[in-house]
């Protein structure tokens, strides 16, 4: 069983340690610990050789003054520095805090680099997929460490077959190979392979590419077919986050219908899929055009509904993307019109300002 440590100053928050734990021999047991002096605590944690460390953001009990004088960032930094010296003792560090603290934390770009993931105490309390995701982080690190010095390590990390290796290697492996520690690889895989579309696709983007409505019938049956045809990603962190290989989906689409799917409307794509597989899928409807005869390319990063490249604009990225395989975010014209992308924490790319102005003042509707 894997061992985790959760550091939080408030005794009542002990229950979150239980909410992160999973029973069983391949499970995770998270123990609760109150913070103490920074360097002593960091050394104590490292000496325990944990498989996971979870930190509250504040690390202070407001009723118990004086405060320790540090937050989660400096402690995580200290743990990361110590881990750089010994690759095989590297472990995931996650932030487990109240949503308000997480929002404050997200304003600090340097501190973000220190954590593999953030989970709000609110979402931990609501159940859901967080337990599997936390365990997936633990197992992913073990896989990175075990294969760290192997010559074919990237194939092992990504769960690639020999044929796939050439294709994925060309894009990703050479770019990622410069990273020096498991936590750096974990961070970039999570941020640029799992969270971004590009090398892999999430379910919304797979369905958008196939022109399928998310809420219609037989969506799960379609995903089962894709799984059977081995389009699903089985590499590290796949137990926590379901993803699909983008290049495999492109291959799969070829020869499926009379024409290439990219040239067909959603209505035509779905009619072909239904005929091929005996399904009752519904075509997705364009939010901008209001009908299903749309040429969808991907899912909007704001509303997650399928959108046409033609009716989407680029979103602003706070940091330039360090990898060529990671795709920029896009916002559909409908979300630009309603302004709803702002609530999702997205901003528009400056280069799109002329078209954005036209969408917002109604000129594109004429
Ligand atoms: Zn949208």
Structure overview:
The protein is α/β, with parallel strands linked by helices. The chain has 3 domains: 2-143, Rossmann fold (3-Layer(aba) Sandwich), CATH 3.40.50; 149-194, no CATH class; 200-365, no CATH class. Helix content is 41%, strand content 11%. It has 16 helices and 11 strands. It has helices spanning 15-20, 38-47, 72-85, 99-106, 109-112, 121-125, 130-146, 153-158, 162-176, 182-194, 203-210, 219-228, 246-253, 266-277, 333-338, 353-360, and strands at 2-7, 28-33, 52-55, 93-97, 117-120, 200-201, 244-245, 296-299, 306-308, 312-314, 330-332. The strands form 4 sheets. A 5-stranded parallel sheet has the order 2-1-3-4-5. Strands 6-7 form a two-stranded antiparallel sheet. Strand 8 and strand 9 (306-308) form a beta hairpin. Helix 2 (38-47) crosses helix 3 (72-85) and helix 7 (130-146) crosses helix 10. The chain is globular and about 65 Å long. It binds zinc ion (ZN). Zinc ion is lined by residues 300, 302-303, 305, 331-332, 334-335.
SSE topology:
Elements: E1 2-7, H1 15-20, E2 28-33, H2 38-47, E3 52-55, H3 72-85, E4 93-97, H4 99-106, H5 109-112, E5 117-120, H6 121-125, H7 130-146, H8 153-158, H9 162-176, H10 182-194, E6 200-201, H11 203-210, H12 219-228, E7 244-245, H13 246-253, H14 266-277, E8 296-299, E9 306-308, E10 312-314, E11 330-332, H15 333-338, H16 353-360
Parallel strand pairs: 1-2, 1-3, 3-4, 4-5
Antiparallel strand pairs: 6-7, 8-9, 10-11
Helix pairs in contact: 2-3, 7-10
This protein binds zinc ion.
Residues 300, 302-303, 305, 331-332, 334-335 line the site of zinc ion.
